[in-house]
Design a protein that fits this description.
Layout (H helix, E strand, L loop, with lengths): L6 H5 L7 H45 L4 E6 L11 E5 L3 H8 L6 H10 L1 E6 L1 H14 L5 E5 L12 H15 L6 E6 L2 E9 L5 H4 L7 H5 L16 E10 L3 H8 L2 H26 L1
Antiparallel strand pairs: 1-3, 2-3, 4-7, 5-6, 6-7
Helix pairs in contact: 2-5, 2-9, 3-4
Amino acid sequence: MKTHTTPHAARRPAPSNLLPLALLLLSLGAAMWWLGQTLVLRQTLSEGRTVADMVENIGRWASQYGGVHAKTTGTDAKIPGNFLTRAVYSVSDSDSSVLQGALVKSAVGEQAALQRVEAYHWKNPALIQREVADVVAASGSKARFRLTARTVLNTNNAPDAFEREALDAVQAAAAAGEKTPEYWKVQSGTLLYARSMVAQPSCLRCHDKPETAPEFLRTNAQFNGGGGFGYVAGKPAGLISVKVPLADPAQALVRSAPVQAWAALAVAGLAFSWLLFNAWRMRRG
């Protein structure tokens, strides 16, 4: 008896022939996903480091002048936020005499002299950095930063759980000889980044010893947080802590991949579709 095999059965591929195509599809998808995740993390980490660089440079700029004085004119002028000391000056000897009571001729003259009084409110580098952080937050920027340390003058600057973890990590890195100790991790879709902050000589005006700190710090309850002293110029004193939300990986790929890459992916997609079509045709045939 003769047996015959149908052409259709001869051309019908085994289901296992589709396995390599499925693996190819899965591997391409996984590669794109990991590429997007890695790209987003690198970009966000770079942004965190840039923010920390900015904070350091602001501190260095203010430190070379020993801080900054904000000037106001007149006794009715709005106080320029927080400050550590204030010095008030009359603009002329005549005004000085009027205000001291040596040459009081009329209340009008006294009021005029008061409107010309100049006041200089001293802000130290750390206060300047904190006010810049407030401006950044109010601007709607996604990145946030602040300064913290193991012990602080202001309890509002006390370290959180991540920052305590980072303080231990950067201390260990510094002991190991790293030039710029840093620590970071991703938590709830946000990059938490911290870098060691080195004390500048101007920091010692407030952070050397309690008895040598400005009176404002010694008498204001807000700055009696139980610490914040004992800084040594040139030595680590605390952290610059930065928070940056991670972008969507797909959007990052769309923005970052060049046209040539998308063209290559399109060709790969067409080739894959052609293979699938041929496999389907052979099964149908």
